[in-house]
Amino acid sequence: MKYVGLFVLMFVTTGMALAQNNVLGTWKSIDDETGEAKSHVQIFKKGDKLYGKIVKILTDKGDDALCDACKGKKKNQPVLGMAIIEKLEYDGERWRGGQILDPEDGNTYGCVVWTPDDNDNVLKVRGRHWTGLYRTQTWHRVK
What we know:
The protein is mainly beta. It has one helix at residues 2-21; strands at 25-30, 37-46, 49-57, 83-90, 95-102, 107-114, 122-128, 134-141. The longest helix is centred in the first third of the chain and has 20 residues, at 2-21. It is globular, with a radius of gyration of 17 Å.
């Protein structure tokens, strides 16, 4: 009987590890208002935190685009290669607690990302404003 408990624990632990890692990879960001593909964002882990950086720009702004609306250290820095998702932590279901940057307006928002249970090729990305309002984008895995 103790082996059954050990097997269940291993199964649950493996499932959680897979759920944590199914967001890793490169995703095509899609603007939720226009439906336009904007960029490819590579999502990766650094330690136990999740990050995402722009690795390809798909709009006419091109690879030389600068984040002129950004504040602080990112002001006037190249958008290509810029980290736009930072410091998300896994809570057992979703990655949250960090922030996402919108390079178009320079604003940062609280961020939650997850893959729907039935599709690891879709990533839901929710940015939440301090007012409680939020927007959710659907990104698609780049193969």
